[in-house]
Amino acid sequence: MNQREIFLRHVAQTSASPLGLEIVKAEGSLLYDVNGKEYIDLIGGISVANVGHRHSKVIEAIKKQLDAYLHIMVYGEFIEAPQVEYAKLLTDHLPASLNSVYFTNSGTEAVEGAMKLAKRTTGRTQIIAFNRSYHGSTQGALSVIGDEYWRNSFRPLLPDVLHLEYNSFDSLKEITEQTACVIAETVQAEAGIIIPSKEWMVTLRKKCDETGSLLILDEIQTGFGRTGRLWGFEHFDIVPDILLLGKALGGGMPLGAFIADKNLMWQLTENPVLGHITTFGGHPVCCAAGMAALKALLDEGMLNEVKNKEELFSSLLVHKKIISLRSFGLWMAVEFENFETNKKVIDHCIANGVLVDWFLFASNCMRISPPLMIDENLMERSCKIILQACAMS
Ligand SMILES: Cc1ncc(COP(=O)(O)O)c(C=O)c1O
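^ Those are the sequences you sent over. The predicted structure of the assembly is below.
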């Protein structure tokens, strides 16, 4: 059997038609397959490779940590320098109330931990979420994702979850003294980059304050510079009670986090003690990699370039087949009339060395979320191929 056959037979499949590219090398914004074909990566592992694939500082930090120690003890018992230093660096770049970091292995685990913390803190059970939000695939996160198609087959899920319309003022009336928390993406990703109004976000924050409900902002895609600010919530002048991070947080290694005030977080230490447990969360190699990635993001001016790059993409991607282009930083949904057109465009792009895909809840929209360090030449080359694909689809 060749690699493809073994992949299909022995690696669990979640899609009837996986992309199935056999990549042997990744560097910056480029991937190379087993035949030496080059791909311009416009999806960055789905908003993971924000500082580029295999950033030299990330690789250096991983190698250094490999020579010191790998896993040594379950979460929260030993003082592990990579965790401590990364928690300090993150909180130095967050508002004062977000000062305590719980590291997880993934985004969905950050969602689980945050919802537990909200229930424990408020003594309430109701969780409010929004239609067309994506928060992960474990059963708690699945309970709050905003699409019945994905939820239905796995019921019973968490009880007392209410889904509301995102960016609707009317919806906010449903937040009451019964509500433990409201979980929202700062900008809805898988719905195809849906940007809420600032007024709505401010009203949501106010409503949570009035009812004593905790506001959880899922920045697993919007965080870490994707939107041109370090954190997405900075665009809206609000601060969540609990912030969720993942994806780019580990610089290419698996890492998530939920971050809150110490006054909330201490509740996981008693009644019951060990209120949230993980063996590998905050793995030292992942924290070392993530910290190197965050330093690179901050030190190499990547955030400052996001606006210009967003404008360049927007100015180049003009075609009569493109119905709209929604963008928020270096993060775009290119909208076509239907899935069929989108699929043809995507297939043509991939065949011609440009990696793009669609969104979970917006199959007629093409995703662009490249490494933030992508250069102008690669942006121009990839847009040319996308426009060719539009013309042929
Ligand atoms: C907004 C958002 N939240 C949560 C998750 C879940 O993260 P993970 O796949 O690391 O569990 C994702 C993953 O795509 C996401 O996009």
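The first helix runs from residue 3 to 10. The chain has a mean pLDDT of 97.

Shout if you want it in another format.
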